[in-house]
Amino acid sequence: MTADSKSIQYAFALDSHGFLIHISEAVRSQDYVCPGCRQNLSPVMGEKNARHFRHAQECCALETYLHKCAKEAFFERYQKSLNDGTPISLALERQVFCTGERLELARASSLRCQTSVPAKYNLTQFFDTAELEKKDVHTGLKPDVLLSQATSERRCYIEMCVTHPCSPDKIETGVPILEFKIASEADIRQLMTGYYSGKDDNLTVYNWQPPARSEETCRGECSVGNVFLDVWSLSESGRLNRTTQPLSAVDLTANTVSNAWPSSTAGAELIANLRNFVGEVDPDSQFPNCVRCEHAGYWEDGFLFCRSKAKMVPYTEARQCASYRVKT
Questions:
Q1: Fewer CB within 10 A of the end CB, N or C, for the chain?
Q2: Residue, of 235 and 221, whose pLDDT is higher
């Protein structure tokens, strides 16, 4: 311990039964020992200064004290949950991929709409045994706390990082690891809550990634990116109308793959899409349209190249064109 170790105010100690307690639970007449060095701690319970435990003599480093306290805190909290059924909650992030109809409008199998959603686990439903500094017989490694399942080989390492992070050999085993960064007694109090999240700054999760899931129903705004669609409609007078919208804004109740496709669509594919659309909304050819003509070439801003006339013509030219023939 450093030269001023006796002046450090400790908040935790082990009671006569070996349980970790906070100074707020201490009784002046009881005996307590340091979780780090197992030497006596005296409860200081005056009215002027904050209550704390104090070493009678120099003995252990603060780092050792924090590390030992953290292990004891997690272990005792886990044992309590196993005994009374309260959960030990771990919140991670699961990747969800959308396979719904919105993505079909983009007409690109390589695009993937994904988002992250909470995946919550009760650790006690996965691991029914907790052991302090127990060697894992499968790997020969000794985590700070070993969680295991009695009826299977399922296990999880709990590591407390005060100065030394989890070793590569433990990570490379593939065993799920929860590494808690312990910098103060406040981190130990957090361990005792039984609620942990992968988003916490002091928790690093190794080898535990909730499996991704595919869903047919979109969860909200599409994450594919800046994909813009041309959405087509036919007016009551037979004119083609086009609006350009981001994929996430297209109304799926009114639009389908029949009338909406990526704005980048061009050439023969664009003419084919327009021909199919017009044929679907005007099957009786009430409004002759050059896009349905067998002479139709490429489309360019409301004009088509007519192979019969060898020039660009308005798509409405069909209404008065003797060469108009619906392509079958």
A1: C
A2: 235
